[in-house]
């Protein structure tokens, strides 16, 4: 069966027919397409995985701060909370949240990260896979291979919808990353290719309509916290699928729905920083704090909520 990454159902069918995980299918097909050996291509992905792990460690360190001053230190705070009695969630959930914050804060601080699938959603996939690896003592090879499954999901989404916040809102960035992470987790935990599809559909269905509204136009607020939320969504979707819970809507239909929802979003909610949280009085004040000039545009909420002497006006 020809693999063209336009249908997740086709990938699932091919993997099931061959009695293999999606990652094995993708690794073999991509190696042939790129005219590389499977081991060389695996090593390339392994290097990306090592960068992911390094960015977690760098992002958790105290003193991490973005150039704008708008973000930094949240991963360190989560790491401190994880080691105290003030850990509400515990286990893999808290670990994943901490890692997601670390990678996305390291990105905001101009550190080295892997766009997965974008820089704005870079913390979700690494956090999911690295946290489950630590919790279950999984091999590095299994984790690296799971990234091929995640990548296949990302390619199908990119071919049929979008992974760009400017085109489809944050559902296209953090939503796609959550779907990719959920797919990787299902395979890592012994799920079937069909369960991978259910996890992808559930993850996307839970974020439909999520807007892209970066405060001051920077990938910091609320982007970093949405990485934490995104990995939480990936864990939920993977757990549901592994429990045998099925999504009534096929993954390919969920992907096309995400595109239609993104196309229906007004421009102000697609990475322009003219709507959503970016257009709140505080969002506009933070814009002026960073750039020294008032934010342009914005929603009626911003204009009507500001006091007469607000610097946003």
What characteristics describe this protein?
single chain, 0% strand, 313 residues, mainly alpha
Structural overview:
- By secondary structure, this protein is an all-alpha fold.
- It is built from 14 helices and no strands.
- It has helices at residues 8-18, 22-34, 38-60, 74-82, 91-108, 124-136, 140-160, 165-168, 170-188, 193-205, 223-242, 251-264, 281-291, 300-305.
- The model is unreliable at 298-313 (pLDDT under 50).
For the sheet with most strands, the description reads: none
Helical stretch tally: 14
Mean pLDDT: 94
Helical fraction equals: 55-70%
Task: Give the uncertain stretches in residue-range form.
Answer: 298-313
**Rounded radius of gyration (Å):** 20 Å
SSE string, helices as H and strands as E: HHHHHHHHHHHHHH
Shape by Cα distribution:
globular
Strand content: under 5%
Alpha-carbon distance between the termini?
60 Å
Instruction: Determine the structural class based on helices, strands and strand pairing.
Output: mainly alpha
Query: What's the count of strands?
Result: 0
What's the gist of this structure?
This protein is 62% helix and 0% strand. By secondary structure, the chain is mostly helical.
SSE order and pairing:
Blueprint: H1 8-18, H2 22-34, H3 38-60, H4 74-82, H5 91-108, H6 124-136, H7 140-160, H8 165-168, H9 170-188, H10 193-205, H11 223-242, H12 251-264, H13 281-291, H14 300-305
Helix pairs in contact: 1-10, 2-3, 2-7, 3-5, 3-7, 4-5, 5-6, 5-11, 6-7, 6-9, 6-11, 7-9, 9-10, 9-11, 10-11, 10-12
């Amino acid at each position: 069966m020809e693999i063209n990454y336009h249908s997740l159902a086709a990938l699932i069918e091919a993997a099931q027919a061959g009695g293999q995980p999606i990652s094995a299918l993708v690794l073999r097909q991509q190696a042939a397409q790129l005219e590389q050996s499977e081991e060389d291509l695996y090593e390339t992905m392994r290097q990306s995985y090592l960068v992911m792990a390094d960015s977690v460690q760098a992002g958790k360190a105290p003193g991490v701060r973005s150039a704008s001053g708008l973000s930094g230190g949240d991963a360190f705070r989560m790491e401190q909370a994880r080691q105290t009695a003030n850990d509400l969630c515990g286990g893999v959930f808290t670990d994943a949240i901490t890692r997601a914050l670390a990678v996305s804060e390291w990105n905001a601080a101009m550190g080295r990260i892997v766009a997965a699938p974008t820089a704005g959603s870079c913390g979700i996939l690494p956090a999911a896979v690295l946290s489950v690896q630590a919790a279950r003592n999984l091999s590095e090879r299994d984790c690296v291979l799971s990234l091929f499954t995640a990548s296949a999901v990302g390619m199908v989404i990119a071919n049929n919808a979008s992974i760009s916040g400017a085109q489809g809102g944050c559902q296209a960035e953090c939503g796609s990353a959550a779907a990719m992470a959920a797919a990787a987790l299902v395979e890592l935990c012994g799920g079937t290719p069909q369960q991978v599809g259910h996890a992808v559909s559930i993850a996307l269905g839970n974020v439909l309509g999520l807007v892209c509204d970066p405060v001051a136009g920077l990938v910091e607020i609320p982007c970093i916290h949405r990485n934490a939320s995104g990995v939480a969504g990936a864990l939920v979707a993977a757990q549901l699928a592994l429990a045998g819970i099925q999504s009534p809507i096929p993954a390919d239909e969920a992907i096309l729905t995400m595109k239609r929802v993104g196309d229906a979003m007004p421009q102000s909610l697609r990475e322009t920083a003219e709507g959503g949280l970016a257009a709140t009085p505080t969002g506009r004040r933070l814009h002026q704090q960073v750039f020294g000039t008032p934010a342009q545009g914005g929603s009626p909420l911003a204009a009507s909520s500001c006091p007469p002497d607000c610097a946003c006006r």
